[in-house]
Write a structure and sequence with these properties.
The chain has 10 helices and 8 strands. By secondary structure, the protein is of the alpha/beta class. It starts with a helix and ends in a 6-residue tail after the last helix.
């Protein structure tokens, strides 16, 4: 299954240096990092957000493969944190819903369904939350998280999401108890600290994950690769 990697003249991957390292055991080709381009609709400075309330609200935002993306862990973490609220945006899977149907009924777990990122509904959810939680087991740069960061949400993610969160975000493991501890800690941050981290999160996306940045970087990578390939 790694033959395409092994036979490649060069590799272009999304994600970060952690992602790049996962390719190296299977290829000696040069590996180039390409930042994901994400939509940005909502400058956090233009959102009506009460941080004193929003710091108790967390967004899980993702696609199919809910167990892989850590929705199960997120729901479990909120079962004993009744003063904190988890908002879920994404598709629901029949077997997952059956397994977690009782826990999804908790007052502090709100399932919004699939939400258009350009809609007023998503805008309002981003205004209601201060953080995006995503304990995924493997991503090549989680576009859903970057989209939420583009609206000023502060990332709480595993290293396997392949997102560099600097000092403004939090890296977590996939252990429920440890996730709970981080959620409690960040929900107690000062309004000033959360506001500063939110701006840093937004600026990170604006600097590295716009479509213009994607286009420019891809052009530069191809300009390096193509002259080296012998057809």
């Amino acid at each position: 299954e790694y033959l395409s990697v092994a036979l490649s003249d060069a590799i272009i991957c999304t994600g970060n240096n952690w992602t790049i390292e996962t390719y190296k055991p299977y290829s000696k080709a040069n590996i180039y990092r390409l930042p994901i381009g994400v939509y940005n609709y909502f400058d956090p400075s233009k959102l009506t957000k009460d941080i004193s309330v929003a710091r108790k609200h967390f967004l899980w935002f993702g696609g199919h493969g809910l167990m892989l993306k850590g929705l199960d862990l997120s729901i479990e973490a909120f079962q004993n944190l009744e003063d904190l609220t988890l908002h879920i945006c994404g598709p629901m899977e029949v077997d997952f819903e059956e397994e977690f149907k009782e826990k999804l009924k908790k007052n502090n777990v709100i399932y919004h369904g699939f939400v258009d990122v350009g809609s007023d509904k998503f805008k309002n959810i981003c205004a209601e939350c201060a953080f995006v939680l995503f304990p995924s087991a493997g991503e090549a740069g989680a576009g859903s998280v970057l989209t939420a960061m583009g609206s000023g949400l502060i990332p709480i993610v595993t290293k396997e999401t392949s997102i560099d969160v600097g000092t403004f975000g939090e890296i977590i493991t996939r252990r429920i108890r440890e996730i709970e501890e981080v959620l409690i800690n960040v929900s107690s941050l000062s309004i000033k600290e959360i506001d500063a981290r939110s701006r840093q999160s937004y600026n990170y996306v604006m600097r590295l994950h716009t479509f213009n940045k994607y286009e420019k970087t891809l052009s530069e990578i191809l300009a390096k690769i193509i002259p080296q390939i012998q057809f």
